[in-house]
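Protein in question quoted for reference:
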Amino acid sequence: MTEKFAEVAIALPIDRVFHYAIPEKYSDCIAIGKRVFVPFQNRTIVGYVVGFSDESDVKEVKDIGSVIDEEPILSEEMLKLTNWIKDNYFCTWGEAIEAAIPGGIKKGKVAIGSKLKDSQIRLEDFPPSSPHILTEEQEKALKIIIEAVEKGEYKTFLLHGITASGKTEVYLQAIGEVLKKDRQAIVLVPEISLTPQTIERFISRFGDRVAVLHSKLTPAKRFLEWKKIVDNKAQIAVGARSAIFSPMKKLGLIIVDEEHETTYKQDDVPKYHARDVAEARARLNSCPLILGSATPSLESYYRAKKGEYKLIKLTKRIEERLLPKVKIVDMRMELATRKRVAIFSKVLLDAIDRTLKSGKQAIIFLNRRGFSTFVNCKKCGLVLKCKRCDTVLVYHFDEKKLICHYCNYRTQAPDICPNCKYGYIRYFGLGTERVESEISHNFSHVHIARMDSDTTIKRGSHDRILGEFKAGKVSLLVGTQMIAKGLDFPKVTLVGVVSADVTLNLPDFRASERTFDLLTQVGGRAGRGEDGGEVIVQTYAPGHYAILTAAKHDYEKFYVEEIASRKELLFPPFINLVKVTVRARNEDLTSRTAGELTEAIKAEDKSMKVAGPAPAPISRMRGYFRYNILLKDKDRHAMCELLKKVLGTFRKPHGVLIAVDVDPMSM
């Protein structure tokens, strides 16, 4: 090697690569894409070799400590992809690279010791399946996709198929064609939909050629699955958002199922969106990308309308099954005719009764966990709030505790008001725990299960609950959005939505879209067998277009209404957003710093649209006060460059933290 210096990216928030001298003994084994141990300040850390150069930008250059890998773990393509993430998601190259490798080997390990010698998938658990005969619409969709696969060209298809229209079978047959060409495929599914049922569909069709990657796996199991792909023992990666970084060498197809899902957005740095990374990776590999959904994101549908994506529609359910009938129940009428606020309308209770008597199953949906969503004193009006967050405490009956859903602060529920010392404490609002309790009172003879993040904490509990429901041991399943996606149970003929307004009233420009998506998706769980199905939606806003269009399964009408409002308010897809959050433990300091930063951004670029600063919707979280600044521009990269420049010279006071989120999913 003639070059003297290695360019090393480090997973720290310092936006540059560092030069290190290459000792003689490593000159033959160092290579781009390998990890190295390097001295940094007064410690030794892991770095990633991203290039070489003859000159260094500093006088005193330290030596590389050692080379970790025998073979590069980052391909040229992966380095290009992570560099793209760096430019588009306000992070450093090292931070982007760190997101692309499995957690277990991040600290410089070469492998993870495991009692398992092989992948955790036991093929005997998955009876083999054969390709189904396609409907005319599926056949047409597959033909268009296969043409792009054969040409080996980049193209994005938006597969807009109503629930139970057979999108998965189109994916499976498209993957079959890709494998015939000796190429590989990545399938992304939202973490929430990574049920045994989803995995079963792929493994029963393709056997041990499938690697499964998701956060519920132990680091050792995850590493084994990753290694299966590296060693070319698996040609298909199925997983949650980080599976987009699967180390494929001959990628021929990428599929993003339920592409509208917000869980594709990473919460931590780098805050990438897996759908956009999938698009960048498909472009780098000149291969097709399929985005599938019954309720496409507004951004994707807008791009399909403009011709940037190819729109493919599946408008009929498999075997011509009818879409479930949807009934909207106006809870204001219930309130007027009954003495107390009822959780279930008479319509919903009668429907549950009918369903259970006919030996069928029902799903009851409420996107809020806990027993009571707020506790207050009827005498002085005190509402019990979290000490560290500006949020109300939720009562959990199982634990007899008040819990903050943001920081997990827990406290005993008081018998008397801590403020006025009178015994007037009352419990209000609804959560899944209370819904389960009330249903048990009404249907005491029935087996009921609840599925939310409280009941699925233990490893394997998710699979156990769904397994019991599938086997018919449970007749009624109560749950949050976990049960809204990707489940296919033929005996479910009724879906009841306890309150459609939970997501509608959030202070967020995507609130209507989320409500429409959830109602459509959860409604799609009904009538997937031969018996048809019905959906009953309880709401206090029966005239809202998100609820009316979801009831009619009319995505097109919802899109027309929603896109007009986005255009008027200048929100995505007409613009890109970047949210800058300033946090500190002192409110005045937070507000003042946010104001100064806003002025600095405006001074740097007078044409940039800047809104705020304003207190975040939850203005205090985990003891920190939070202010948001919002940037709006068509060029995401330009906003990132502007912020890098401003924050590079901005002197923030001690104790202030600043976070940048490109294309935020919530405010």
User: Anything to note?
Assistant: The CA atoms of residues 1 and 24 lie 9 Å apart. The longest helix spans residues 587-604.
